Amino acid sequence: MWKLFALHALHASHSVAVCAQTSITESKELDEFKHLGGVVFPYEHPNWLQRRMAAKGWYSRFGRMKRWGPDLICVSLGATCDPFWQRDLLEMLQMNSAPQLFIVQANAEGFIKGDAQREALRPLYTSALRIICVSRANATLLERQLAAALPNVLILPNPIRSRLEKPLAWPDNASGAVHFATVARYDVDCKCQDQTLEAFASPEWENRNWRLSLFGSGADEIYLRDLIGYYGLQKHVSISGYERDFRKIWAGNHLHILNSRAEGLTLALIESMFCGRPAVITRAGGNHELLRDGIDGFVSPGSDPDIIRETFEIAWASREKWQLMGESAFQRATDWIPSDLGVRLLNTITGEKNGAVQESAHIQ
Fold first, then answer.
1. What pLDDT is attached to residue 216?
2. CB within 8 Å of 193: residues ≥ 6 apart
3. What would you measure as the largest C-alpha separation in the chain, in angstroms?
4. Across 177-236, where does the E strand assignment appear?
5. End-to-end distance of the chain based on CA atoms, in angstroms?
6. Which CATH architecture has domain 178-336?
7. pLDDT the model gives residue 159
8. CATH architecture entry for 2-156+338-363
C-alpha cells in the first residue's frame, strides 16, 4: 500500500523518500519508484547492540530522513505495537513535528498491553493526521486497546498486485483429488498451520482423496515438516515453498484454507478470491468482513483444531457448490477492492481541509 501511495505522489509532482531495509530498497519492487525520482534511504536490520543503543537514544536508522526534512511522515506498520518496540522509530516520531500518517497492516488481542505501551502509543495515534487500517475489526480493537476514540481512522484494503478481470478456470478434477492450499508465512503462532494439520489428522480425512499444499516461507518450516510426519499426513500434505505468482497457485487448487489468530485483511485471501476460489477462514482481523460465510466460503468461529475440523466437514459436504462460491468470491473481491486505491490514498492526504500538507509537500 505504501508503495502505491508513493508512486501516485511522485506522479503528482511531490518529492518522496523511502526509508526501508536494504533488501527492500534494492529489490525490483522499487525500480519504478527510483525511475520516477524517488529518494532511497536504506538501512540494515539493527543488531542487538544497535537496538540497545537505540533504546538509550544513542543510535537511529532515521538520521538522513530527519535531515531531508519531510513535510509528512508516512509509517507502514506490520502491527499496531511496532513503534513501541522500535525505539529509534518511536523517538523520531515523538520529536518530529511534521504530520504523521500510519498504515496499519495487522492487529490482534495482546498486541498492545500494559500501561507503558499505551502511554507511548496513545499520543501517536490520537494526534495522527490519519490512521489507515485494512479492516474495521483492527480499528475497533485499536480503540479498545488504547481506551481512546480515533476519529482519524480510514478503512482501506490492500491493493492486489495484478487485478484480474475474470476468475481463473476451475481446476481440472479428472483424478478425483481435491486440492487445498494455504498461502501464508510459516509462522504457527499467527497462521495456525499446526492446528490445521491437527484438524486433518482424523480417521475421516485419512481415507478421503485430498491434497494440501502449504505455500510460503518462514521460521517454522522444519517444525511443520516434523508435524506432517508426526500426524502421518505425508501422502496428503506437502511443503511447497514461496510462489510469487498467485495465479500459478490457484490454477491448480480448489479451496483456500487460512486459519489465523492475527490478521489485518490478508492479501493472500484477496488474491484467491480474485482467482475465483472459496476459502475456509477464521474470524481474525477483517477476513470475515470480506468473505461471507456460506456465500464466498466458510467462516470457522475459532482456530481450535476441533472447531476447524467441524468447519472442514461443512465445507467438504458442500464441495459441489465450491465453483459457484468461487464465482461469488471473485465478484465480492472485485466490488470490495477499489481500482483507484492509489489515488484515494493520495487524496486522503493532499485533500485535507486543514492545509497541513501543501501542494509541494515532501512525503516520507
1. 95
2. 182, 184, 186, 214, 220, 224, 259
3. 65
4. 178-183, 210-215
5. 14
6. 3-Layer(aba) Sandwich (3.40)
7. 82
8. 3-Layer(aba) Sandwich (3.40)
Q: How many CB atoms lie within 10 A of CB 326?
A: 26
- Smallest CA-to-CA distance from 181 within 247, 133, 125 is with 247
- All cell numbers assigned to 230: 508426526
- pLDDT means per 10 residues, the chain with 364 residues, are 89 93 92 95 91 89 91 93 93 91 92 95 95 93 96 88 89 88 95 95 94 96 97 96 95 95 89 97 90 96 91 96 97 88 76 37 38
123 vs 86: CA distance, rounded Å: 16
Q: In the numeric block, which cell numbers belong to residue 331?
A: 465478484
Do 310 and 286 touch, CB atoms closer than 8 A? no
Q: Specify the pLDDT at position 264.
A: 86
Distance from C-alpha of 328 to C-alpha of 275, rounded to nearest angstrom: 11
State the cell numbers at 105.
497492516
Give the side-chain half-sphere CA count within 13 A for 193. 30
DSSP state of 263: B
Task: State the Cα–Cα distance between residues 191 and 269, nearest whole angstrom.
Answer: 13
* Positions of CATH 3.40.50.2000 in the chain: 178-336
Give the DSSP letter of residue 45. Answer: P
